[in-house]
Every structure is written in structure tokens, then in C-alpha cells.
Amino acid sequence: MKKFFKAIADFFRPQSPSRKAFFERVVTAIKRNAQLRIGLILLAVLLFVAFGAGLLTSRSPYYMYDDLKQAPNSTYLLGTDGLGRDVYTMIVYGTRVSLMIGIVAASISGIIGTMVGAIAGYFGGKVDRFVVEFINIFVMTPSFFLILIIIALFGSSITNVMLVLGLTSWTGNARLMRAQAISIKERVFIKSAKVIGEGNWKIMFKHVIPNGIFPVIANTTMNVSGAILSEASLSFLGLGDPNVVSWGQMISHGKTYMSPAPWISISAGIAIVFTVLTFFLLGEGLKNVLSPKLQNVQGGE
Amino acid sequence: MARYIGKRAITGVVMVILSVCINFTLIRLAPGDPIRIMAGTDNPNQAMIDTLTKKYGLDKSIPEQFVMFLAGIAKGDLGFSYVSHENVVDAILLKLGPTLMLSLTALIIAVLLGTTLGILAARKVNSWWDKFLCGISYVFDSTPSFWLGLIMILVFASALHIFPTSGMVNLRVQSKGLGRILDIAYHLVLPVTTLVCIQTPYYFRIARSSVLQVMAEDFITTFKATGMPRKKVFNKYVFKNAMLPTITVVGMSIAFLFSGAVLIETVFAWPGMGRLLIDSISRRDYPILTGIYFIISVAVATMMILIDIVYGIVDPRIKHDQPST
């Protein structure tokens, strides 16, 4: 146990010059880039709400109270919905669902995109041509339409939604990773590694992917917001998982009570805007920080 | 050029067949049986189920059905709807008009507005005006379109009673000629405004970032250094180069127009392709689904080729006759 804490403490102690420089660079980047700064603050709020849901409310998002369509008051901070559920509690617990869907779907697309892109770019040749053609066909299919059909016909469990969203959005990541791999594999250190006798797969995982992953990370952060929006849209069309409380479903439910109880849809919508905005700003900030060419033009403030 | 276009056209046809094939198989592999819906759920009669299955060719294997479907396309026949027994081509054409009216209007306004604002923001980069526009664009980019539509209805239709809540025409007043056009335009305002709000940030950011990127190029710095007037540098060199990404994006957006704005059409009860799509999915209306998908694929393939041609005209650096491209 002691060893474990020591290891953590060692990691954070800026002892080696390179790590110190790394932390300093991160701090400067956050200081200089407004989008990244605001995004991180919003993310902290979101994570606090998601993990501290039990602290923020003592109610259950599924419990139906006797007061239907109550306007916001001191008992029900954001009112109740058409079934008597507390809107505030639903919003708080909905954060978990949205974050999970967004992050899992974006991670699936990030991992697949990185692997496919790295293999295509690094090995080149026939594999590369096949992947490029495949991506071209994929780009031509209207993805939301495809998601709609798959979810509607194969069932709308939350696992299905995350899988489909992930599997339909990896092409952007693959393109970025492929471009990176093509440029990295010509560098001297890769050639040296080859001369030493390291295997292709080892080089790919040890050098190519770690050195080229940054644009994919920025893009994956953006994909989180895309996935959250798509899930909300699916829920709105009645294709969400009926067993979980999600913001999209709240809007869909609130649509029926739009004029007598507008607070249901309005509060859920604001929650979506807030969350999507967070990941959008983070992604933009990361992209600007990680691409030095644009930094001179639009860097920070 | 002609040879290049011919080659692209062949690739386009292959892509259309491939993507329709995937879609065709996917729809038919899915659980749910259209025959059970057609035969009725109360007291299905085995003889009727058999007759219907045979009539619609659903007793054959999926590859056989696909060949039949392709043969139908060659004759310009996409089959008949399982539910309304309408000709699929007619059913789609009926919905295509309203969809194009809504989406194309919104697209044109959004492209013009977004590009203009993007160029203005890029020319005064890091000014308060630029920051204000960027901030607004982030917020609208994060807003779900259907929610914005609901808010529009709540504010402008329910509370202020300025615009109608939904639909395309006022069903109580059967007007003709100019009256009908005005009626449709009146019903168009809210859905178009919503779509414009959602789409403008996209074109804004593309225009802004590509102008910035071109301005950072060395040849622009050289022009400025030689003392060429800023206005001339911008109009003659920056603008033309910066418009290339916008052309691609607009081309793709036009191609996807045909699928309709599913969410906005649902919110505003607009009788377009998006609604047709949602209804067909819930009714397992295979012919309509494959028909819509086929039309979208053809539109996308056509637009891809058109974009290439436009690129060749706008950017003389791209020469299609070289073997490398």
C-alpha cells in the first residue's frame, strides 16, 4: 500500500526535467487557450454532478409523486413531469446516462479509428487502398439514417445505441490516424527502430500510435458531443432505451405537455446544450493546442 | 476530363449498388415481419399469410430478392408499398417537394449567412466581434435541433401567436394560387429559422478557419510585402482559395437534403421525406425504405462527381487527366 502511494506521489513530483516541462506546457496551454479553460471548468461541474448525484438530491429519478405537472417550486426545484417524477432529480441522474453514452461511443470510435488508420497508414499498399475505398463508401452513407434504421429494427437498448453510435463514427478518426502514420513512418527514429530489428507491430504500437494519437484525441472529444446529441435525437424519436432516464426522453415526454408544463423539455434541453458545449469546447481547445500551425493565427486570446 | 468523369461515374454506380446492397440486407435481416402486420394481429389466417408472402416475393432468399429489386430499378420500378400499396416512386416524389422546399431554403440561407459571417470574423480575427460570433456558434452547435424547434413553437406559436405551430398549409382555408404560396411561406418561417440556426455555425466555422488558413500561407505574406492592396489580396487570392472547403461541404449537404430533416419534420409535422422514413421504419415498409435509401445513394454519388467537376473549374491546380489523380 505504501509503495502504491509512493509511486503516485513520485509521478506527480516534478523531478525529471522532461516531466516538469510537460506539466508546465500543460499549464501554459490551459492558461493561453480560453476554450480549453472554460471546457475544463464545465467538465468539472459535469463530473461533480455525475458522481455526486446522491449528494445533490435524495430522491429517485423513477419515483412517481402524487403531484403531476407541478410548476417549479421549493419542493420540486424544476417541477414534476406528466407522471409525477421530479424533473431536477431526473436531470441530475440523466447526466450519468449522457456522459456514459457519449464517452463509451466516442471511445469505441476512437479505438477502431486508431487501429484501422494506423494499420492502413503504416503498412500501406493493398491494405491501405482497401481501407481508403471503404472509408469513401462509408462517408457516402448518411449515418444518422443508418443509425435510425439499425436502432429501430434491432432494438434500442443502451448497449445497442452506444455500439451503433461508435461503429458509425470511426472513419474521421481513421483518416486522421492514417495521415499521421504516413508521415511518422518516414521519420528517422522509426527507421532506426527497424534497423535494430523491432517488429512492425511493435513499432506500430510503441512508436507510431503514441506519437500520432493527439489529433485523434481531440477528435474523439468532439465525438463525445456528437454521440450525446445523436442519442438525444434517437430518444426524441422514441428510439431510446425505455429503461433509463435520459435527457432526450425527457424532451420527448415533455413535448406532450409543452404548453401546460414547458419546464420539463426546457430544463432537459438546457442540460444537453451544457454537456455538448463542454465537450465541444474541450475538443476545439485540444485541437488548437495540438496543431502548432494554427496557433500563430488564432492561438488563445 | 471526360475520361475522368466516366471513371468516376463507374465508381459511383459501384458504390450505389454496394451501399444499397448493405442496406437491403440489413433491413431484411432485422427482426419483425411485415407480413404479420399486413395479415392483422387479431386473427391471422395461415392461407392469407402464405398468399401475401408469395405475392411480395418474401418467400425467396435475400439474394434472390435483391436481384429482383435490381431488375426493378433497371425498369424504373421501385415496387409498391406494403402498407398503402402506392407506387414507391410516386410516394417518394409526393414527399420530395415539401422536403426540398424546407431543406433547400434553409441550406441556401445558412450557407450565405454562415460564409459571410465567417469571412467577416476571420478578417477581424480576435476582435470582440469575432469572439462574439464564435461564442454564439458554439452554443447553437451544441443545441439539439428538435429542442430548438420546440422552443420556437413555444415562444412564437403558443405564447405570441405570430406563426402557426405545425403543418404545411392551413387546412381550414383551402386557398389556391398566390394565397397558397403565401400560406406555405407563412408555415415555412419557423422550421426554416430553426434549421438556419442549427446549420449556420457549421458554415461559419468552415469559412472562418479556411480563410485564416489561407491568410497564413507564405504567398499571401509575399503579396502583402510587395505592397499589393489588402482588398485586392483578399478578393483575388484569399477568397477563391478559401472557398474550396465550403464547396465540398455544400455539395455533400445538397446530397443529404434528399433524406430530409427527420427531426425538424417530426417537430413541425412537415409532410416530407423524414416523416415518410420514420413511418416506414415503424411499419416495416421495406420497399419504401430501400427506395429512399436508393435515392439518397444516387444523390450522393451524383453530387460527388459534380463536386469534382466544380473543383476542376474553380481550382486550376487540379488536373483530372493526370494519371496520378
The CATH class of chain A is identified as: Mainly Alpha
Average pLDDT, all residues of chain A: 83
- Supply the number of helical segments of chain A: 15
The poorly predicted ranges of chain B are none
Query: What is the fold named in CATH at topology level of the domain at 91-283 in chain B?
Result: MetI-like fold
Q: What's the CATH topology name of chain A?
A: MetI-like fold
Described by the principal axes of the CA atoms, the overall outline of chain B is: globular
Compute the CA-based radius of gyration of chain B. Answer: 24 Å
Question: What overall geometry of chain A do the principal axes of the alpha carbons give?
Answer: globular
Main sheet overview of chain B: none
The SSE string of chain B, one letter per element, is HHHHHHHHHHHHH
Q: What is the percent of helical residues of chain B?
A: over 70%
Instruction: Report how far the terminal alpha carbons of chain B are from each other.
Output: 11 Å
The percent of residues in helical segments of chain A reads over 70%
Number of helices of chain B: 13
Outline of this structure?
Chain A is mainly α.
How does this structure look, described?
The complex is a heterodimer of chains A (301) and B (325). Helices cover 76% and strands 0% of the residues of chain A. By secondary structure, chain A is an all-alpha fold. In chain A, helix 5 (87-123) packs antiparallel against helix 6 (125-140). The model of chain A is unreliable at 294-301 (pLDDT under 50). Chain B has 325 residues and is mostly helical. Chain B has a domain at 91-283: MetI-like (MetI-like fold). Helix content of chain B is 74%, strand content 0%. Chain B contains 13 helices and no strands. Chain B is globular and about 85 Å long. The termini of chain B are close together. The chains are: A mainly alpha (301), B mainly alpha (325). Chains A and B meet through helix 6, helix 7, helix 12, helix 13 and helix 14 of A and helix 1, helix 6, helix 7, helix 8 and helix 11 of B.
